[in-house]
């Protein structure tokens, strides 16, 4: 896996993944930025969310469960002093589907957290990561 990050101006950087996708990272005005993109640490948190969401949906679909939607809400706290690593991350899953049980969704979340999500497991070295979920039945 490769990536490239190029400084554009002030506090703005353009990141390009090895697969050719780009995203803009920028800082707030007080750091010289123009607030035109996500902060690097926000990007890291979003990446973790994407990683675990991918796992949970994949696990549910592989088990032939009727999952229709999955949304995550993430909240994180960072250390007060440098390096301002994440110290706490909470992930709330909202999973929509038909006939999904607590046991099935809970197991998918647990498998992602403990076995499959590389990003969560890596960030778990500095942060206490907690999870919860809700299931919304759809027709």
TrEMBL record:
InterPro entries (alphabetical): KH_dom-like_a/b, OsmC/Ohr_fam, OsmC/Ohrsf
PANTHER family in UniProt: PROTEIN YHFA
Organism of this sequence: Methylocaldum marinum
Protein name, per record: OsmC/Ohr family protein
């Amino acid at each position: 896996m490769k990536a490239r990050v190029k400084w554009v101006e002030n506090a703005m950087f353009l990141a390009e993944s090895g697969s050719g996708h780009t995203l803009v990272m920028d800082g707030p005005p007080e750091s010289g930025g123009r607030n035109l993109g996500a902060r690097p640490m926000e990007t890291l948190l979003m990446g973790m969310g994407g990683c675990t969401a991918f796992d949970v949906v994949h696990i549910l679909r592989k088990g032939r469960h009727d999952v229709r939607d999955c949304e995550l809400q993430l909240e994180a706290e960072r250390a007060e002093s440098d390096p301002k690593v994440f110290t706490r991350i909470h992930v709330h899953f909202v999973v929509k589907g038909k006939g999904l049980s607590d046991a099935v969704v809970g197991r998918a979340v647990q498998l992602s957290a403990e076995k499959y999500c590389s990003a969560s497991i890596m960030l778990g070295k500095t942060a206490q990561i907690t999870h919860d979920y809700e299931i919304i039945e759809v027709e």
